[in-house]
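BUG: 3D viewer hangs when loading the predicted structure for this chain

Environment: internal workstation, default settings.
Expected: structure renders.
Actual: progress bar stalls at 90%.

Input used:
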Amino acid sequence: MTVDNHNDEAEQSVKIGFLTVRHLEDGSYRAGLLVTDETGKPLELRATGALRPDPIQALIYGDTLVPTITEELCGQPLIDSLREQPDVIVADHEAFLPLHNDDRPVVYIRRTGQELEVDVDSDVDPQERRSEEVLRPVAGRFEPVVLEFAGGMEDEARQLLRSKFARLFEAFDLVEPFDRVTKALDMLHEQQSKKGE
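Structure tokens produced before the viewer hung:
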């Protein structure tokens, strides 16, 4: 019997992208994407400039403003700009889920107990329904998280991702990198605001 060590090696070298967007006090939005290795060590950070929709834009975009900013103006451009392409992207905002594709899954992650808006409409196509699972680290070092998968994701792909996240969750807190990105975005915004951007 032959053992395939290549798969074990590939399983160990996972790159994770942590994608977030911030709505800042001055009304602008900034997004950041931090790519880490499987231990949480940073490999690359990308950030957008400040996006400031004016009142008329906010009015005419209405409920589509945040999805447009997150998906089209922030998420996809940040992903496209990366040198270190992640194997999976975790996002702290569900508006990034439409960026999911089979080659680069996107998963929405949040702490258990974090508030979530619930859509009670029952006319949603079952293929488009998203599924979520609670992930608790075996060692109990970190607070449990909820993984929300894009609608239509196959069960096998979802279980593979869940297993990967369970292994990663033993090494580091899967939500903590968002704190790092958020602080970096705040510092960047403050520095650029002082320069008069």
